[in-house]
Design a protein that fits this description.
Number of helices: 2
Shape: globular
Structural class: alpha+beta
Number of domains: 1
Largest sheet: 4 strands, antiparallel
Radius of gyration: 12 Å
Strand content: 25-35%
Number of strands: 4
Amino acid sequence: MSPKDNKEFMQVLGEYLTANDFVLPENADIQYCIDGILVLVDGKIVLSIGDRPPTVIYEIHETEYTEQYLSGMTA
């Protein structure tokens, strides 16, 4: 299953983007990794989301590329 098919995750991500006035570009790639989910744009990790069981909280962490790629200027 793709992270994009996870309704709970996509709702949390959407709320986070809206709350921070971020825009997810169309070329964003969302992938599972060993301990969570990565959001990549142009090969750069723009968000790192923890989703480790038993309680999935979807803890979202910004990276050095978050503002550059999600601020809406490049979308």
